[in-house]
Design brief:
About 35% of the residues lie in helices and about 25% in strands. By secondary structure, it is an alpha+beta fold. Helix 8 crosses helix 10. The protein starts with a helix and ends in a 20-residue tail after the last helix.
Length: about 500
């Protein structure tokens, strides 16, 4: 039955498309091909006309946009067009256009793009409109817009055909307008703090700076396999070695991993590094950055996210990973000293432990992910991570099994990751060696050895604080979007012919 319905819909669509193509052919045969028009002199947007009605009333304007509604009433008609900002109504009559032009106007379809020249007025219902003197077809829509494009049943189509989604769902466009504003505010915040924006390579010979599976490509001239970057950390820290005190880069990262509402294989991330600071300074910066951006973009730092009020304004909670586990399930890893003890308590709590990740530190991290992470609704800093899961982080002087690292959690998901950066080249080399061993044992996400980065550290890097924030997730939070695909214009999708 479903297959028959799909076939009928396809036949209907083909019929409608043929009608529109026939209209185009007739226009072209009569020397009125809309695709030959190269420019249209638009004087105002729809928003301009509405916002400045008092000044523009009775004045001639030219507006342009896509027909989204049309009402034919014999010798007079109304149509509504939509441009990038707003929509506006136009009154079109045979008396103003003439018989031939009005007859042509009546053949235009929903979805066609037109230009309208005329004067500004208000209808009897007080709607600001344009009284058309001239209507020009600027582009013929050969494929009809869907009548109903809302709802979960069409979610896959919306992501695949974002251009249609933007046309028929104005709230989607607003999300991406907010995305642009959020990105500008983040950059402005860091610029005002004295950070320098820089660019680093996307193609790398080493996949480093994070624990993730990379995408692999091939450089033909060099006959060399290369990796799309999974992080820009190691290059940015090279710049700290080189003498820049504060740097940041926002850009695309690529990780060959699973896809869900929180993950897309390519995503936007920002990393920043500040010499002579540590992870405590990065905590302060993270909290202030989120509060400032929310206030500047939304006008408030107390927001709603998927039905839950999130208070970005109040002081954010700070708690160690070990203490958060103790609060959540009663297990105190301060009293568990060996790998064997940790494995035993994991068995008691029925936590599955990867056979290549059976150290006390790995098990602490597993407990956190099982019992704590999803409970962190209000903004919370979890700090002092085990060294086993933090290969680029400086160890805590008071406990060498832990590192000066934090992650920030809001609504049960992670938004940022920061370190007191490891600047000891000898220690870094040893940790890379352990990562290489883990990789050889089958951990595809383990770091590779980066000899050039070790060499850079050997020249000396000052104590440095570093922070990375998932920009897409930040935008999800501030736009109340449920999925990362809702804030990426063209998310990764499997081709329909492979589905």
């Amino acid at each position: 039955m479903q297959e028959n319905n799909n076939q009928e819909q396809e036949l209907d669509l083909n019929h409608l498309m043929q009608i529109r193509r026939d209209k185009l052919n007739e226009l072209q045969e009569n020397g009125k091909d809309p695709f030959e028009i190269t420019k249209y002199d638009r004087t105002n947007t729809a928003a301009d006309v509405k916002e400045n009605y008092d000044k523009l009333e009775g004045q001639d304007v030219s507006v342009a946009g896509r027909i989204i509604a049309k009402r034919i009433m014999g010798k007079a008609s109304f149509c509504t067009i939509q441009d990038s900002d707003e929509k506006i109504q136009s009154y079109v009559s045979i008396n103003d256009l003439g018989e031939e032009s009005y007859k042509l106007f009546k053949t235009y379809d929903i979805g066609d793009i037109i230009g309208i020249k005329g004067f500004v007025f208000k209808t009897k219902t007080e709607e600001i409109s344009v009284h058309a003197k001239q209507v020009t077809l600027l582009s013929k829509s050969l494929r009809p817009l869907p009548e109903k494009f809302h709802g979960l049943k069409d979610i896959d189509l919306r992501y695949r055909q974002r251009y249609v989604d933007l046309i028929v769902n104005p709230e989607v466009k607003e999300t991406f307008v907010l995305r642009s504003k959020i990105i500008r505010e983040v950059k402005a915040y860091l610029d005002n703090k004295g950070y320098l924006e820089v660019d680093t390579p996307i193609l790398n010979t080493i996949a480093g700076g994070a624990a993730a599976r990379p995408f692999i490509t091939h450089h033909n001239t060099l006959d060399l396999d290369m990796y799309l970057r999974i992080a820009n950390e190691l290059y940015l820290k090279r710049l700290i070695v080189g003498g820049f005190d504060k740097v940041y880069e926002m850009g695309r990262m690529f990780r060959n991993e699973g896809m869900d509402i929180k993950h897309n294989p390519e995503f936007t991330n920002i990393e920043m590094y500040s010499a002579y600071e540590d992870y405590n300074d990065m905590m302060d910066l993270t909290e202030d950055l989120f509060k400032t951006v929310a206030k500047n973009v939304l006008g408030t730092s107390v927001i709603d996210y998927q039905g839950t009020q999130i208070d970005l304004e109040s002081t954010w909670k700070r708690i160690t990973m070990i203490d958060s586990i103790k609060e959540a399930c009663g297990v105190d890893f301060n009293t568990i000293q060996t790998d064997e003890e940790a494995l035993e308590i994991a068995k008691q709590k029925k936590i599955e432990i990867d056979e290549i990740k059976q150290t006390r530190g790995d098990i602490i991290n597993a407990f956190f992910e099982e019992f704590v992470e999803e409970t962190l609704v209000q903004p919370t800093f979890i700090y002092d991570y085990p060294v086993e899961v933090s290969p680029l982080t400086k160890k805590k002087p008071s406990d060498r099994r832990l590192t000066e690292r934090f992650e920030v959690f809001i609504g049960g998901r992670e938004y940022g990751n920061a370190y007191s950066e490891l600047n000891d080249p000898i220690d870094q080399y040893e940790r890379f060696k352990k990562q290489v061993q883990a990789r050889e044992a089958g951990d595809e996400e383990a770091n590779m050895m980066d000899d050039d980065f070790i060499q850079a550290l050997e020249y000396g890097m000052p104590p440095t604080g570093g922070l990375g924030i998932g920009i897409d997730r930040m935008i999800m939070l501030l736009t109340n979007s449920a999925s990362i695909r809702d804030v990426i214009l063209f998310p990764t999708m499997k081709p329909l012919n492979n589905v």
